[in-house]
Amino acid sequence: MNGGPALVSIMRQGSTLIASVHTALDDSELVRFEHDLVDQIGEHRSRGVIIDVAALDVIDSFAALTLRRIAEMARLRGALTVVVGIQPAVAFTMVQLGMGTGNVPTALDLEEGLQLLAEQALPAGPSRSSTAGDGSR
C-alpha cells in the first residue's frame, strides 16, 4: 500500500487466500485492500478467502460494510469468505451498535476458518460421488 510496513498481508494456501489485517485501516486503505483481494481471487482462481481481523481492536461501520462487500464480490467470483479473529470487545461493540457481518460466516480463528471452508466445499466435492455407490438404499 505504501513504503512502510505492510498493513495487510495476503498469502495463498492451495485454493484459499488468507488476508491478515495487521493494523487499523483508514477508509482509503480499506478500499485498496478490497480491490487487491478481489483481484487476487481471480488471479489465483481461489475458492476460499479468509480475512483475519484478530489484530483489530475496532471495526467501524465502514470496515464492517467493506468486509460484507468483499464477501459478496468473492462469492460472485466463486469463492466463499470467512472472517476470523473478531476480538470479544469488538464483537460486543459491533452488537451494541447494531453492526454485523451480515451473512458472512465467521470463525474464532484461522484453524476454524479453514475447517469451515473445507466443510462448505464438501457438498460440491468428492463426498457426493463416494456416497452414491455405497449401496445404502
TrEMBL record:
InterPro entries: Bact_StressResp_Reg, STAS_dom, STAS_dom_sf. It holds the Pfam family STAS. Residues 6-117 form the STAS domain. SUPFAM superfamilies: SpoIIaa-like (SSF52091). PANTHER family: RSBT ANTAGONIST PROTEIN RSBS, RSBT ANTAGONIST PROTEIN RSBS-RELATED. This is STAS domain-containing protein. The lineage of its organism: Bacteria, Bacillati, Actinomycetota, Actinomycetes, Micrococcales.
